[in-house]
Design goal:
The radius of gyration is 18 Å and the shape is elongated. It is α/β, with parallel strands linked by helices. The strands form 5 sheets. The chain has a 6-stranded parallel sheet, with helices on both faces. The chain has a domain of 133 residues: P-loop containing nucleotide triphosphate hydrolases (Rossmann fold), CATH 3.40.50. The relative contact order is 0.19. The protein is built from 5 helices and 14 strands. Bound molecules: zinc ion. Zinc ion binds next to helix 5. The site of zinc ion has 8 residues, from helix 5.
């Protein structure tokens, strides 16, 4: 469990110290629940919190960060990462969900906010359905002070799952509102079925059968 850093131990306790936290993982790993847990703790402490998600994510409710267990907190849908800056002036804590769907400005926006002394909490998928790094999440992992990788449970064998296996044939990277089209899988069960689609060599190169 992530616990907020003890800022009383910083050199100047009165200084506003900002940082970036990333919560990443596969689908069904509880990323949004973890984001909401952190937001709720901040709200209980009467901190000013702003929550954002990309407008592209139209599942469920347009104005809430909604996780799969319906544990919702009201949020602002934005068209672009830069729009977060416009709505964050008063915030001490800025929470951003579905980071993988934001544009290339997201890492810079997070840096600006953290450098202003804000706590920035970002949640997102770290890998796409092919097991490849997704969007700007990998970049955020590099610049974050704190990283939490959460896991789902493999539906095939019950191991720890960090992959989102797509059950449909679509090759579109973004397949929204179709969570039944995915299942969480461990490394072994993910690549076992990937092998049926493509021949995977041990050196990491993938050759598609045509
Ligand atoms: Zn498995």
């Amino acid at each position: 469990m992530f616990l907020e850093p003890d800022l009383n131990h910083t050199v100047n306790a009165n200084a506003q110290v900002g940082w970036i936290e990333v919560v990443c993982g596969s689908m069904f790993s509880g990323k949004t629940e973890e984001l909401i847990r952190r937001v709720r703790r901040a709200l209980i402490a009467k901190q000013e919190v702003s929550i954002f998600k990309p407008l592209i994510d139209t599942r469920y409710d347009k104005e809430k960060v909604v996780s799969h267990n319906k544990n919702a907190v009201r949020s602002i849908p934005v068209n672009s990462a830069k729009d977060i800056l416009i709505h964050s002036h008063k915030a001490q804590v800025v929470a951003i969900d579905e980071a993988q769907f934001f544009d290339k400005d997201l890492p810079d926006v997070c840096q600006i906010l953290a450098n202003q002394g804000k706590r920035v909490i970002v949640a997102g998928l770290d890998m796409d359905f092919e097991g490849k790094p997704f969007g700007w999440t990998p970049h955020l992992l590099a610049i974050a002070e704190f990283i939490t990788k959460v896991h789902a449970i493999c539906v095939k064998c019950g191991s720890i799952a960090s992959y989102s296996y797509r059950l449909t044939a679509s090759k579109e990277r973004v397949l929204l509102g179709e969570k039944e089209a995915y299942e969480p899988r461990c490394r072994q069960c993910f690549y076992k079925d990937k092998k049926k689609e493509a021949q995977v060599y041990t050196n990491g190169h993938t050759t598609k059968h045509s």
